[in-house]
């Protein structure tokens, strides 16, 4: 049944370091909340950035990224 659930068009498959899983599987593997991963994905985060641990990005780094997006 898990495999059937993984093969729907609603799933978002993401490849990180040559390994492909859907967001639900990445949440289980990394221990990061699924809503956090969805939010990051829809905000444009991909790859290692998607599965970074919560709170590791400094305020300055976040500001620089946001400034680039706005310009």
List keywords for this structure.
71 residues, mainly alpha, single chain
Quick gist of this model?
The protein has 71 residues and is mostly helical. 48% of the residues lie in helices and 11% in strands.
Characterization of the model:
This protein has 71 residues and is mainly alpha-helical. 48% of the residues lie in helices and 11% in strands. A two-stranded antiparallel ribbon has the order 1-2. Strand 1 and strand 2 form a beta hairpin.
Tell me the total number of β-strands: 2
Please, what is the average pLDDT? 83
Estimated structural class = mainly alpha
Number of helices: 4
Shape verdict: elongated
Helix content: 40-55%
End-to-end C-alpha gap = 46 Å
Radius of gyration: 14 Å
Report the uncertain regions. Answer: none
Following the backbone from N to C, one meets helices and strands in this order, namely HEEHHH
Q: What proportion of the residues form beta strands (DSSP E)?
A: 5-15%
- Biggest sheet, open or closed, and with what strands and sense? 2 strands, antiparallel
Q: Which strand order spans the largest sheet, edge to edge or round the barrel?
A: 1-2
